[in-house]
Amino acid sequence: MKTIALAISLATALAANSNCVNSTSQKSPAMADSLSSAPEDVLKAKGPTTGADQISKYLDYLKGKKIGIVVNQTSIIGTKPIVDSLVALGVNIVTIFGPEHGFRGTASNGDKVNDSVDPKTGIPAISLYGKLKKPTKEQMAAIDLMIFDIQDVGARFYTYINTLGHVMEACAENNKEMLILDRPNPNGFLVDGPILEDHLHSGIGMYKIPISHGLTIAEFAQMINGEGWLPNKMQCKLKIIKIADYTHDTPYVLPVMPSPNLNTQQSVMLYPHICMFEGTILSQGRGTYMPFTVLGAPLLKGKYDFSFAPHSIKGMSETPLHQDQECYGLDLRKYNLKDIRKSGRIHLKWLIELYNAYPEKEKFFDMSQSKQMGNFDKLSGTENLKKQIIAGTSEEEIRKSWEPGLGQFKEMRKKYLIYP
What we know:
Elements: H1 2-16, H2 29-36, H3 40-44, H4 59-62, E1 66-71, E2 76-77, E3 80-81, H5 82-88, E4 92-98, E5 116-117, E6 124-127, H6 137-141, E7 145-149, H7 160-173, E8 177-181, H8 217-226, E9 238-241, H9 265-274, E10 294-297, E11 307-308, E12 327-331, H10 337-343, H11 349-357, H12 376-380, H13 384-391, H14 395-400, H15 405-413
Parallel strand pairs: 1-4, 1-7, 4-6, 7-8, 8-9
Antiparallel strand pairs: 2-3, 5-6, 10-12, 11-12
Helix pairs in contact: 7-8
């Protein structure tokens, strides 16, 4: 017990003296602003305690083991990067594995990330968003235990759940255990959207789940195992450090931005509703400092008063859609998030409204216009939604078409829940 007490004391001291660490692992000004402007009920709530912050529950388990760790800038103990803290506590981390956006979280969306050596600790940092999708047999042979600690936001097209699956596959193939330090899903209350159709499987849709799955990373890992989603229905041995004081309806303000273009709490909460616009001619604010909180296009001039102009921003979006052009549309930066919580639904009204307002409707979903446009069908997970929007199908009829798949997923999901 003395070892644990000393470790906790040291970790607390490390967190208190974290000004010297890489700035990307600190709360960004934008995230700090979002916290200060968060709803009063969020600020008053006793926040959940992440798995990583409960050091006494796993530190002794790491002693004497060679550790691989899958992390990014969200992987913190207190306010300090978990790698730095664990190394200071004597944990033998031999390899760091980083997902999309890299270990320090500074790469733009979709950018390939190269292998490197972490300058602070001297530990090799291997990219799982470049030539590798999962650790190699040789890399797995060098470790005794894999730790997974990454903040997710609960959307199918957010690629960290793909990284989770790939690393689970490597662990299962090489008979290595994965320790998951669980973190809250800020959209954990939201389970909605069409189920991914098999032929639309892609890097932004690996699993037959709805747009918003409402699971934490640990719950999702249990689903991957339980549903036999690993090749040959392999099983990955899991050890989970649960979140304390958390339910799926617990409001959770992220202390660190999870990726460069989710830089405010507002963007994190709107992301499941807005990311589908990446498959349209509308800018979602990439190329501004307010991504995923605004929507617009040049041809909507005269129909909306609000406007913004995307520009090249290194580390966020170097070549954004409608670069250096004034875009007109919706400003959702102050949209009341309580409305989203109350409805418990993906908001389709913005997609329907902006399609109806767009003057050249045949171009709205035409991805041949720009390399910055994605595939709407792959983003939505179905070929039907685009057809329904074009045909003027009502929102309620669209929602009916998501059944029975959505209802079946909700029932299946219950088997893997750790939290109420």
